[in-house]
Amino acid sequence: MGSIFCGLAQSLTQLTIARVVQGVGGSMLLPIGRLAVLRRVPGDQYISALAFVSIAGQVGPIFGPTLGGLLVQAASWHWIFMINVPIGLAGLFAVRRYLPEDALADVAPFDVLGCGLLSLCMVAFSLALDLPAGEGRMAWSAALFALSGLTVLLYVVHARRRENPLFQLRLFREPNFSVGLVGNLVCRVGSSAVPFLLPLLLQLQLGYTPLQSGLMMLPAAIAGTISKPWIAPLVRRFGYDTFLLANTVLVGAAIMSFAVIGHGWPLSWQIAQLAVFGAANSMQFAAMNSVTLKGLSTRDAGSGNSLFSMVQMLAIGLGVTIGGGLVGVFGGADNALPGRAFTLTFLCVGAITLLSALVFRRLDADRLNGASGRAAAG
After folding, report:
1. 8 Å CB contact between 184 and 360
2. In terms of domains, do 151 and 275 share one?
3. Residue burial 337-348, b: 16+ Cβ < 10 Å; e: rest
4. Contact yes or no for 247/20 (Cβ under 8 A)
5. Between 21 and 61, where is the model more confident?
6. Could you tell me if 241 and 362 lie in one domain?
7. Count of structural domains, the chain
8. For position 117, what pLDDT does the model report?
9. 202-214 burial: b if 16+ Cβ within 10 Å, else e
10. Which residues belong to any copy of the Major facilitator superfamily (MFS) profile domain (predicted)?
11. CA distance 275 to 269
């Protein structure tokens, strides 16, 4: 319904409201695949199953610009949203046909206050980073950061008092869940900026059409899909901790390499850079997802998965916000230096991704890999 409303929108206000409806539906769908894996797949097959489930989520944002560019060029922007309708109907049929019912005996009442506090936290934090430059910006940003911190503290107090809060605080007693959550946030902020920044670079700097810039994202999508079968053998061979450290460095370096793209840069090198990024990023997401969730008990799987999805959405939004903000800062008030702006922005978002390696160093390797993982690694 959200996509239909978006396609029928006649003004920016209508489109914004419709996008909110679409976002609510999408955010509820995101955790379902992972939760089904958590509840039904044995632990030794978890990362392979999760890698397969994540293909759609990984490939979609990269194939999207290609399809979007084609639809805009061949028809109109409305079809960017209307194309979701048959896809949604096909998904609805598949769920009804193939997904077994999983009724829960006891469902706790929805935590309205907890949801409100965390929603306010995310909105305040995002706005603090997204305020336009101008007088009083720092004061407003500081106030919004303080508000986001205050709402987190209020949620902790609320969760301690409520029997069934939105997210149980005991989730954070699982050390790898806490580390994985923070590592996911930092890493995804950097990598989520790439699907936003690259089409801008290709169109504004190199003169590509929307369709051409979308097609340039295909090497990343194809490489990401091909790399999925490599994840489980590599993790078994080296362990989660070593794999994530090395692959995080590879993802960050791949993002920073986009800084050299400009006039005269060979097309073959662009394709190679995108393929490396797509493969490394695809494996990174699957490994990070598994690290974060695999240690949770069955009782906490649903709650932990939902919190993880919320952090994912926050990271994607922050990636676009930070990426766009950096281009504006480095380009100057009149955007007089667009080439330099993109160069510095890719270096910065790549560095943000590299910072997540410091977070993943805190993983409890023995608890995470287990005896069998260590034996395979040796």
Report:
1. no
2. no
3. ebeebbbbbbbb
4. no
5. 21
6. yes
7. 2
8. 92
9. bbbbbebebbbbb
10. 1-368
11. 10
Boundary-marking domain end, from 125, 140, 165: 165
pLDDT of residue 373 exceeding 50, the answer is: no
As a whole number of angstroms, the distance between CA 289 and CA 184 comes to 8
For the CA atoms of 327, 332, 333, 334, the dihedral, rounded to the nearest 10 degrees, stands at -100
Instruction: Tell me the residue type at 96.
Output: R
- Concatenating the DSSP letter of every residue in 72-135 gives HHHS-THHHHHTHHHHHHHHHHHHHHHSPP---S--PPP-HHHHHHHHHHHHHHHHHHHPPSST
Helix, strand, coil % in the chain, rounded to nearest 5: 80, 0, 20
We report the CATH number of the domain holding residue 223 as 1.20.1250.20
Amino acid at 87: I
- Same domain, residue pair 364 and 226: yes
Q: Are residues 368 and 263 in the same domain?
A: yes
- Rounded to 5 degrees, φ, ψ at 224 are -65, -40
- 236 and 268 share one domain: yes
Torsion, Cα of 302, 306, 311, 317 (10° steps): 150
Instruction: Note down the domain range covering 139.
Output: 111-165
pLDDT above 80: residue 163: yes
Say which amino acid occupies 143. Answer: A
Find the mean pLDDT for residues 174-179. 88
- In the numeric block, the tokens 């999760």 are attached to 50
Which is more confident, 144 or 336? Answer: 144
Tokens of 348: 């910065």
State pLDDT tens for residues 110-139. 888 998 999 899 888 888 877 555 556 778
Which position has the higher pLDDT, 152 or 78?
152
Q: What is the pTM of this model?
A: 0.78
> Residue 197 and residue 204: Cα distance in Å, rounded?
10
